[in-house]
Amino acid sequence: MADIRVRFAPSPTGYLHVGGARTALYNWLFARRINGVLILRIEDTDADRSKPELTKAILDSLEWLGLNWDEGPFHQSDRLDRYRALAADLQQTGHAYPCFCTPEELQAKRSLAAGGRPWKYDGTCRKLSELEQQTRLSDGVPHVVRFRVPESGETAFDDQVFGRIKVENQEIEDFVLLRSDGQPTYHLSVVADDIDMRITHVVRGADHLSNTPKQILVYRAAGANLPVFAHLPLILGPDKQRLSKRHGATSVGAYRDQGILPEAMINFLALLGWTPPGGEEILSREAMAQQFDLAAVSKSNAVFDPEKLAWMNSQYLRALPIDRLAPLVEAELQSAGIRSTIPASPAEFEQTVALLQPRMRTLKDFSQGGRAFFTEEFDYDQEARKKFWKDASLPGLLHTLAERIEGIDPFTPEKAEEGLRGLAEETGTKAGLLINATRVALTGQAVAPGLFDIMNVLGRARTVERLRRAVKVLGESGAANA
RNA sequence: GGCGCUAUCGUCUAGGGGUUAGGACGUCAGAUUCUCAAUCUGAAAACCCGGGUUCGAUUCCCGGUAGCGCUACCA
Questions:
Q1: What is the ipTM of this complex?
Q2: Model pLDDT for residues A255-266, shown as the tens digit of each residue
Q3: Does the annotation count A386 as an active-site position?
Q4: For residue A313, which phi and psi values (nearest 5 degrees)?
Q5: Contact present, A69 and A256 (Cβ < 8 Å)
Q6: CA-CA-CA-CA torsion sign (A442, A444, A449, A451)
Q7: Could you tell me the distance in Å between the CA of residue A161 and the C1' of nucleotide B10?
Q8: A372 and which of A155, A238, A241, A443 could share a cystine (Cβ 3.0–4.6 Å)?
Q9: A39 CA from B24 C1′ (Å)
Q10: Distance, CA of A156 to C1' of B60, in Å
Q11: What nucleotide is nearest A448 when CA is compared to C1'?
C-alpha cells in the first residue's frame, strides 16, 4: 500500500458541523485502516466569509473528537501565488482564458434567459481574438480567468461510493478559476493543492459530486494524475432538508456543550452511512478503523437523529470508569455554575457520581436532574410536587421522619429504611407514599435513584435538614393550594 | 428548468431472484416496585409507483414519482 494520502479540508466560514465531522472521521478511519497520511487543509480563499477564529474553533472540535492529523494545517491563503501560477500555466497552454464580462453583465444575461434558470456562461470572451485580449489586458480591464471546457465528449470517473459518474462536457460551463481580485476559486485551489500535496484519495461530501468533472478537467489540463474520488452521502435534518441552524444544534461544539461524549459522537457519526460487517452498534474507533471500507458506505442521505445520539451517549456514559467520569462531571458542574460542596471528599464525590451514572444520558443531566446531589440550591420540580406531595398527612409524617432519622446513630441506609418503614406501618400509610414524598424532599425530583441510596450519599444531617425544609415548603404551599 | 445522484419500518441500517425481510433508536404494552429518564419481556411498524425480464421480483432492467445535490467572481 504505497503512500496513501488523504485530506480533510474544511472552510472556516462556520463551525465544524456534524457533516464535516463525519467527513473528517471517514478520512481518519480510511487513513488509519491503511496506514496512510491525513492532511488538514484550511480552505480560506473566500476572504470575506473566512474567519481566523473559526479556524481555531474547527481545530478545537477536531481535537475534542480525537481526530488527529499527520500534516498541516495548511492554509490556502498562504498559497495564492501557487494558484495564480497554475492559472497562468493553464492560460499558457490554452486551457484557460481571461474573461472581461462584468458581474453585472452576467447577471443581466442570466435574468434575461427565460426565467433566469438554464443559463450558462455564453463564452463571449472565449471568442476574443488574441489582439483584443492583449489590448484589454494592457488597459488593465478587470477580468477573471475561466477554464476552457471542451465542447464535446464526456468526463467520467469511478467514484468509490457512487460508482461510475459521467457528464457531457457540453453541460459544463466555462467556470471561473481566478477571480478578478486574483483570489482563486475552489475549483482551482482544491485541484492545485490536491496535486501538490499528492493526495491519492479525495473523500468528501456528495455535494461535490457534480463538481468533480470540472475538477477532473483541471487535473488533465494540468497534466496531473487523478486521485480516487469517494463522495459521502449528506446528513440531513429531521425534515430531510440539509442540516442548518434552524434544526437546532448542528455544530460539534454545541453537542459538546450539551454533555455529549466525543466517543459517543464519533460512534454515532460513523454509523450514519456505514455499518461494520458484523453489524455491531457500539464500537471503538480502533475497531472501526480495522473494518472501515469506503465501498461499504451508503449512497443515500441520512437524517440526523439526536435521540439515538443521546442513547449512544448513555451507553458510553455508563461504561466510563468512574475515575474518568468524575473529572468530566466536575467540569460540567463548574460550567453550570455549581460549586460542588456536598460530596465532601473526592471519594464521596465519586460515590455520588457512580450512583447517578446509570441513569444519566448526558453530562448535562448531572447538573440538571442531579443538581441536588451537589448543591443546596435546588428547586422542587412542579410535576414531582403535584405527583408525590399531595397527601395531607405528609407534613406531619415528614416531620416525624426527620426526627427519627436524626436519632439514628450511627447512621446507615439500612437503619433509615427500617425507621421509615416502621413509621409507615405505625401510621397506617403505604411505604411508597412516604418514600416518594421523601425523594422529592431530598432531590426536588420525582425521578432519582433509590431513596436509601440517596440518603447514603447525602448523609444524615443533610437528609434531616432537607426533610425539615420540605415540611416548611409543604406547609406554605398547602395553604396556597387549599 | 437543465444535469447528476438516491430510494427497505417514523429514523439509522442489514439483506438479497424464492427469507417469518434481520438489528438498533424511538413508540406502545406488560413485568419489577420506592420514582423512572433505570432494568427485563413483548408488540406494532418498511421493501415509492408502473411496466419489463423470469417459473418467481423487494432484489435485475426501463419509465414515472419524490427527495437531495450542482447549476456563483461560495466551498
A1: 0.95
A2: 999 999 999 999
A3: no
A4: -60, -40
A5: no
A6: positive
A7: 27
A8: A443
A9: 33
A10: 24
A11: B35
